[in-house]
Amino acid sequence: MSQPEQPAKSSAEEPWPVRVVSQKIGAWVAKLGWVWVDGQVAQISRRPGASVVFLTLRDPSADLSLTVTAHRDVLDAGAPELAEGARVTLHAKPEFYPARGSLSLRADEIRQVGLGELLARLERLKKLLGAEGLFARERKRRLPFLPQRVGLITGRASAAERDVLMNTRRRWPSVDFRVINVPVQGPTAVPQIIDALKVLDNDDTVDVIVLARGGGSVEDLLPFSDEALCRAVFGCRTPVVSAIGHETDAPLIDYVADVRASTPTDAAKRIVPDLAEETALIEQARRRLDRAVIALVDRETHRLESWRSRPVLARPEVLLDQRASEVSGLRDRATRSLDQRLRRADDDLRHTLARLRALSPRATLERGYAIVQRADGHVVRAAGEVGTGDVLRVRLADGELRAGVQE
Fold first, then answer.
1. What are phi and psi of 57, to 5 degrees?
2. At the N or C end, where does the chain have fewer CB atoms within 10 A?
3. Where is the OB-fold nucleic acid binding domain (predicted)?
4. What is the 3-state secondary structure (H, E, C) of the chain?
5. More confident of the two residues 234 and 374
């Protein structure tokens, strides 16, 4: 019996049944075909007597996972010692199970990634991140001299946490911490570390962030070479200190962080100053300052003594006496010059007065002369200027006369 024809499009009036949607999803998934997948084994289930093995494969850089099914012979042939946390590469085909509405991968080949391949991948990732500038020295920031608050991301109750807290507080007892405990290895480490970074980076009271973990194998330290974590550290606004493993360990996060500490104890030395050393430095500076001030005062005292020993300051009245004598001499010269000028002016005045008197009309009158004027005041200088009967005024040295003109 043939199935009923399916509508080309779904609508509110003609919706697709669940089985149709499930069939279409299965068809689209089947188009992907066989693919090679890289991931980390988060869980492995080998049931006794069962021929199928179930794996949970997760992305090391994201909180995503897929279920993988494989025949036991496939697992035994490619990765017989496979354990949780291992990295694998498998050849699989995605399958959609309509009954459960789930997606899984069916693998026909599984390869466990060895240490050499892991190191080669890390080297390729290192070159990629370096080419993008994530390791550039010029972008690394200086740590604050005395952070107000330190953010610490580390494993719960770990030796790394104890070393950082104890050694930091030993150096600077009043330092404040905000500690976020996360897994530092395994499938869930990277996303939780990234979340903790975001929390601390958004906290305005945190001045520096420390990522701390104790030593371990290359596989144990893989989360700290994860690309997503490296980019998250690169994007932080807050300076980041990497204190992962021992001095010989060098995960990629060491190259991205603003400061690399060889050990968690070394991180404590880098994030805060030593109170005892700073106190000693202050005391040394105070002593140097005291010596400098005393030397300056002594030098200026000697300079003042040398100035005071000079004659001009030892007997300042000598200089005043000299100036007083000069002032007195100048005053005498000014007095004599003024007297001479006054006497010359007096003689000139007397001579001028004598000349004025000699030329004065009054002096002429006193010698017996007279001034004859007509009635209108005109001075008569010739006889023809008057006529018979005119009345004339005759001015003498002492008084005046009235006279009439006769023929």
1. -105, 125
2. N
3. 17-111
4. CCCCCCCCCCCCCCCCCHHHHHHHHHHHHHCCCCEEEEEEEEEEECCCCCCEEEEEEECCCCCCEEEEEEEHHHHHHHCCCCCCCCEEEEEEEEEEECCCCEEEEEEEEEEECCHHHHHHHHHHHHHHHHHCCCCCHHHCCCCCCCCCCEEEEECCCCHHHHHHHHHHHHHCCCCCEEEEECCCCCCCHHHHHHHHHHHHHCCCCCCEEEEEECCCCCCCCHHHHCHHHHHHHHCCCCCEEEEECCCCCCCCHHHHCCEECCCHHHHHHHHCCCHHHHHHHHHHHHHHHHHHHHHHHHHHHHHHHHHHHCHHHHCHHHHHHHHHHHHHHHHHHHHHHHHHHHHHHHHHHHHHHHHHHHHCHHHHHHCCCCEEECCCCCECCCHHHCCCCCEEEEECCCCEEEEECCC
5. 234
The residue assigned the tokens 């030993």 is 170
What's the CA angle centered on 286, arms 284 and 289, to 5 degrees? 110
Q: Which residues contact 370 (CB under 8 A, 6 or more apart)?
A: 394, 395, 396
CA dihedral 116, 121, 123, 126 (to 10 degrees): -150
pLDDT digits over 342-377, tens only?
Answer: 999 999 999 998 888 777 777 777 777 888 888 787
Q: Do 164 and 154 touch, CB atoms closer than 8 A? A: yes
To the question of pTM greater than 0.85 for the whole model, the response is no
C-alpha 207/C-alpha 224 separation (Å) is 22
